[in-house]
Amino acid sequence: xxxxxxxxxxxxxxxxxxxxxxxxxxxxxxIATRYVAGETARSGVARAASLLASPGIRSxxxxxxxxxxxxxxxxxxxxxxxxxxxxxxxxGMDVHISVDPTQVGQTLDPAMARRNVFSIAEAxxxxxxxxxxxxxxxxDMEDASVTDATIKLHDDVHAAKLPVALTLQAYRxxxxxxxxxxxxxxxxxxxxxxxxxxGPDLAFPRQSEIKENSRRLIDMMLSxxxxxxxxxxxxxxxxxxxxxxxxxxxxxxxxQAGEYEFEMLLGVRGDVSxxxxxxxxxxxxxxxxxxxxxxxxxxxxxENPRNGWLLARSLVGNA
Length: 319
Ligand code: FAD
Fold this sequence. Notes:
binds flavin-adenine dinucleotide, 14 helices, 8 strands, globular
């Protein structure tokens, strides 16, 4: 049932006709407002400000430009990331921006992607201007074909002492080996389960194995050695058992709330993120903005069949 629901939603996310129809005629639908902050950088920053005001949740802004396959689209993405860095800089909030390497040209021209990543990281450094906060260009991790390149981009930007962070995926078999040097280096790493398809030679096929590996990686990220190295753990999941596990490991190894953080997606399990923030944990939401909101929103709906009501209500309510 879950699988059939997910593949229907992935089909909807990929259909250019459906996307055009929904985005052009239903831009203010319930779905868009739940999962996406709005179309412009200003609306992203406004949503980040309201989340910080209550209940004290931080944000990572993400410009929704997916399936980027021309230099023109790459340019649009880079401009949007730099614009939002400038706007965040004026607010006093964290200048924290998520970037997919393929959005900034990784598959078109890796040298161009490298220049673009450095430009965005420099804009973040300028806008945050050494004030306190967690400022970073957060590199999202995409499919296995770009893993090495993404880690290399991170390491080069880190070596240049620019604000950068890296996402690693618990479903990949290699991740413990990728994590070790990042801990030694005192990097900022966001741990996710992984959202891309990969064969059993590269990835754990079963959910139970992915969860077990998540716990092993959390053990490494919240170890005493990691704390001594100045490492910054970011646990990005909606899985409340992993939240509890993280807090238990943190307390056992001398980490205080605020020395690590949880990250979740805007619109997903808001009750859980609010409860974590209320209990004194540092929480961040991934806040997407941009015109191209449909593929992101429909994937969130596809993650849980119970979200069917939201899709139906939105379409009927706007018909
Ligand atoms: P799950 O086991 O999927 O879910 C835990 C619980 O939350 C379950 O009860 C489930 O039903 C519920 N839940 C999950 N999603 C929904 C939903 N949409 N609606 C309602 N309930 C829901 N993946 C990558 O491969 N690369 C990345 O760079 C990346 N960046 C991410 C950044 C952030 C901040 C987050 C939160 C996720 C990111 N992901 C990324 C996606 C990630 O890999 C998982 O696919 C996704 O988070 C689902 O796994 P989960 O850990 O939340 O646990």
